[in-house]
Amino acid sequence: MANPTIDEGTAVPAAEWRDKKRHLWLLGLVPPTAVFLAAGFVALFNWASDQLDAGWLATVSPVWWWIGPILIYVLLPILDIFFGPDGQNPPEELMEQLENDKYYRYCTYVYIPFQMLSIVFACYLWTASDLSWLGIEGGLGLASKIGLAFSIGAMGGIGINTAHELGHKKVSLERWLSKITLAQTFYGHFYIEHNRGHHVRVATPEDPASSRFGENFWTFLPRSVYGSLKSAWELEATRLKRQDKSVFHPSNDVLNAWAMSIVLWGALTAIFGWQILPFVAIQAVYGFSLLETVNYLEHYGLLRQKNERGRYVRCTPQHSWNSDHICTNIFLYHLQRHSDHHANPTRRYQTLRSFDEAPNLPSGYASMITLAYFPPIWRKVMDHRVLDHYDGDLSKINIQPGKEAKVMAKYGKVSA
Fold first, then answer.
1. Closest CA to 80 of 71, 69, 67, 68
2. I need a surface site. Which of 6, 150, 225, 380 has the fewest CB within 10 A?
């Protein structure tokens, strides 16, 4: 059955349609291999410094250990501006064929072994005292170690998106792969909260992962982290109670997901020593903070209205902020096509489509993540877009509690 909300303007006959991104999806492996690329560039710069007698190359080479933040905050926003919108939706006739093409799911599976190899490599780099093979005297300096932690955290944060893609699927293997991917950031409860909490309460005041109008990111971050953890635990406690089982039963999906983190972190500590723990902690916090930044921008200020029975209406494309910039689309497996994802949570990433009627962010997620860190700039860019989306009707906006009077005083004239 055709989805009436599909952007028909981009439709082409099924016989002529080709997935132009089919091979580009392999670029999604850049984040989990970025640390290896960084090591190569460090070695190349240090070698060139000796060969060309250009000491400045060795001086700047440690910058490559920050390759994760460079990718997120610099490279991707530039590429989004340069390459612009995606503009391609698959035709309805090919959806089933595309959905069942296993090539696409293998592109996500292969993320996981590279992710694990990268964190093991990082542990080695954090503790090695002789890195002469990279042209480094002794071990890494503190700034390089911290940069490496942020780069590994970037991989873990993007890995949460891979876990998000896998965790929605009905195949048991993919659900377990989702938990394994979340182990690095100790955010295994996301698997429960996102699927059974966020998707039920999205764009309502009750959802900890839906940001409110007037709420800045630094207030949203602890609310979402704590609220999501609490929600995940309560969801599993309720499920197990119905089965007459203890909340501490091994089938508790929050506990067995956390157990994977304990096993991973414990094994790395046993091999490389306790010295890795501060950096493992930094990468975990940065990794799940990236996820929460994306949560912040995906539903900012949007509100599902209630029907005559006092129940929230069904989630529609109007309840998610979309962006269809092709470069971030590729790196985040179409996460930016968030409206279709909420309408069809089990749909695989390659078949997600962009909607004309969904509210659109002015740029890709990568650019908007940076804006979210600076509340005055965020409000200047986004608040008027929320007001425009609701034609200035403040009663339809999800406003941060306690800020109603301030919002009314500032924007009330708009709705008058």
1. 71
2. 380
Q: Rounded to the nearest 10 degrees, how much is the dihedral formed by the CA atoms of 153, 154, 160, 163?
A: -100
Give strand ranges (E) for 24-180: none
- φ, ψ of residue 360 to 5 degrees: the values are -115, 135
Q: What's the CA gap between 147 and 152, in Å, rounded?
A: 9
How many whole angstroms separate alpha carbon 352 and alpha carbon 159? Answer: 19
DSSP class of 60: H
Distance CA 48, CA 394 (A): 60
Q: Quick check: 104 and 348 in contact, CB under 8 A?
A: yes
Profile the chain (416 residues) by mean pLDDT over runs of 10 residues. Answer: 41 79 94 97 96 94 97 95 88 91 96 97 98 96 98 96 93 94 96 95 96 97 97 97 95 96 98 98 98 96 94 92 92 91 90 88 92 97 96 95 92 64
Phi and psi torsions of 205, nearest 5°: -65, -20
Q: For the CA atoms of the chain, what is the radius of gyration?
A: 22
SS3 129: coil
- Do 204 and 210 touch, CB atoms closer than 8 A? yes
End-to-end CA distance of the chain: 42
Q: How far apart are CA 154 and CA 160, in angstroms?
A: 10
Q: Among 90, 131, 118, which residue's Cα sits nearest to residue 184? A: 118
Nearest in space to 366 (alpha carbons), one of 334, 310, 325: 325
Residue 361 CB partners (closer than 8 Å, separation 6+): 297, 321, 322, 323, 368
- Reading the block at residue 198, the tokens are 């966020």
